[in-house]
Records
---
Amino acid sequence: MIKITLPDGSIKDFEKSPSPMDVAKSISEGLARNVISAKFNGTTVETVTPLQMDGSLVLYTWKDKEGKTAFWHSTSHIVAQALEELYPGIKLTIGPAIDNGFYYDVDLPEGSISEKDFQKIEQKALEIARGKHDYKMRSVSKSDALRFYKDQGNEYKVELIENLDDGTITFCDHDTFTDLCRGGHIPNTGIVKAIKILSVAGAYWRGDENNTQLTRVYGISFPKQKELTEYLQLLEEAKKRDHRKLGKELELFTFSQKVGQGLPLWLPKGAALRERLEQFLKKAQKKAGYEMVVTPHIGQKELYVTSGHYAKYGEDSFQPINTPKEDEEFLLKPMNCPHHCEIYNARPFSYRELPKRYAEFGTVYRYEQSGELHGLTRVRGFTQDDAHIFCTPDQLDTEFKNVIDLSLYVLGSLGFEDFTAQVSIRDLNNPDKYIGAADNWDKAEQAIINAAKEKGLDYIIESGEAAFYGPKLDFMVKDALGRNWQLGTIQVDYNLPERFDLTYKGSDNELHRPIMIHRAPFGSMERFIALLLEHTGGNFPLWLIPEQAIVLPVSEKHEKYAEKVLKSLENNEIRALIDSRNETVGKKIREAEMNKIPFMLIVGENNEKAKTISVRKHGGEDLGAITIDQFTNLVTNEINSTLKSF
Ligand SMILES: [Zn+2]
Ligand SMILES: [Zn+2]
């Protein structure tokens, strides 16, 4: 008798060893049709592997991440077979599943693979897939495995096998194809209905540039053609919305090799946008009782040794700055927190004066490998919308709720509607991992969960995900393309108050440790603006966008009137410009559309007579001829509808 425990806790008995597929069939035919992968006692198994002992089984379908991994891994075998058939003499190396699809690294005997070959590879692979070949795993002795690949002259697989222990080596067969493989396949090739080769790139064997350069073939596959079509549309849209492309087109920021990689330069329009974002948050923070502080871009090495950041960032980061004075070392600031701790330490506090909330748009520097740099999302210098709250344990509850309110205000005003909260708490089986008294942790975790509940957040609790120094809450924001971004972490910290010996005088006249909360609703200005660009496709909310309107005179004759219109708009605090080039209105409209300007104000003969403007919205909607006052009201109303109150 074999006892199989399912994720819902139910137990099923089987007379003899069932395969995961047998278990699926015993639940429902529908499930059996959809199961493509399984995990038994925590290990990935084939759906046909007989389960020889009692244990817990998880069945996966295409909807699960594990299902997709098995699907894409299995497709890489099919594509490898297609490549072998199309390019005789090709040597296969490794071909894993990745986040979105799979790749296979191959050594081509001659020539190269380019985009014009993709279709031929896809067709061949699909032809193989349609054969509905089963994936069959088998154990092979080390000597047989070595002989198999030595006969093929494949030194890469030989090298891989040489590093494996005899008795652990398995091959996977399907159709006429065999590959060295640890397993984790879908039942048969026929489930793969759509295959797309996405790109090729160079890759060194084992990632070492002293080794042979291989060709990496990237691809993706789906169980339905429709899903591939949708994926390709999404890719197209993501390309259009790439913040690096939009940032250039909208003249927001640039990079210079001379200045250095990963160090963004903000152009006037981008700088103005940042400034508006900063003012927006500063205004809300002032209402919420924050005080602005300013700290330098460098600090003595000792400061970061005290904070523990040197141990974390020191070795692999920017090296210390030396001065003419020997033994003096400074570091570029990797975090603002140590500086703010010393601001708190500048004078003694009584419990009556807490909480203190210090905010700073603080620029920090962290060394990232050049291969890791990416537009504004991975940079070496960035500005955090940082703040640190120092409070008593009794105040934590209220402070946490207030920070959530502020974060919700920020997300709402910037058009992020779809988000969840993730609460990270301790692993109670591992209490020694954490600093700070257990009852403080209990209180803090409860405070965060209560706050999430009370604010009506859609939240999940992750046990064991808390940092060693405190629990936290993260907002996981879904952008317009359905991608998840982590934003606005609220972190409780028992560690830095200890390290910096922060105190306050309690009502008992004794000294106590305050609790510190780190929070940054945007995270960093750079990453946030990148996210905002990709979320909105450059169509920022009206209150934030660089130019709200553009005046387009129909001809030279109306330039004077157009200038007057512009002046009135400026007087009404509407950000506008004028396009008085000697071009057709049609061309001016097309360019204004490309520059994502929300309102085009066309002025011609009739407008001048009636003192109106003809308003066309970005995207084409015609609002007709209205007065400037009417237009100002329209702008104000639209801004008020997006900019939530705080
Ligand atoms: Zn495999
Ligand atoms: Zn901090």
---
Amino acid sequence: MARAAVLGRLIWLAGKVTGLRDETATARTIMLDVPGWRGHAPGQHVDVRLTAEDGYSTQRSYSIASAQDGSRVELTVQRLPDGEVSPYLAQTLEIGYPLELRGPIGGWFVWDPDATDPVLLVAGGSGIVPLMCMIRARAAAASTVPFRLVYSVRTPADVIYADELREREKAGDGLEVSFVYTREVPLGWPGSPGRITRKSLTAPGWLARQDPQVFVCGPTGYVEAAAGLLTRAGHRADRIKTERFGPTGG
Ligand SMILES: Cc1cc2nc3c(=O)[nH]c(=O)nc-3n(C[C@H](O)[C@H](O)[C@H](O)COP(=O)(O)OP(=O)(O)OC[C@H]3O[C@@H](n4cnc5c(N)ncnc54)[C@H](O)[C@@H]3O)c2cc1C
């Protein structure tokens, strides 16, 4: 009901693809110019609508990857082999193509760049996208609030934004990044592949008693597992915000 009320005030905007960047073999960033864009908060998403020549239309939700910057909006889409929309966005779309979108949507899963609490970000797969928006917004605001990202991927080749994360961590301004590899670890990695554990979420300095604000995003099962581990480790439920990348559409 609330979502319907909010969506009722949003109009579809005509974006245009201005650039494309392959992030991994299956994930691609789409850079858009969206005249009329009113700005967004880190963590919000948009609805993207595709309409075929015969009038058939379908839509999906995508998190915003870029920090607020005028009419520029970036999305990063992970291609699902049997998906209806993601292969078009991550493979077929070309520079100059139009793309209809509506947003920004969501007022709960957002980070306020003026906030001073430490932040724990927990990403699974393409769940990194809204968390990367928060990391970029922190840098744009020259914030030095401690941020720790725990990022779970299947293999090292599946890390989205790998170079940028490395560079941003090297800046030494309070961003720490750690990885969990579920199927294949990098050469020389101390350990074997495995799922996220309580230990991977509670590195030194990031215990529940520091009371960080926590954002968890990824596939539904991953989000539920991570949120369960966090609450059992003593994090207060009202400090944990979650976003589930389950199927969307209609
Ligand atoms: C708030 C929100 C933000 C999102 N942000 C992003 C984002 O930034 N980047 C991104 O790549 N995706 C994101 N998603 C997921 C996205 O909306 C689509 O669900 C996804 O792109 C698949 O669409 P599709 O049409 O290709 O697949 P569909 O044709 O809808 O589904 C194909 C098959 O895949 C399954 N499936 C659908 N979606 C998923 C999923 N997310 N994970 C696992 N299996 C799935 C379906 O059950 C079905 O079996 C977000 C979802 C939500 C709710």
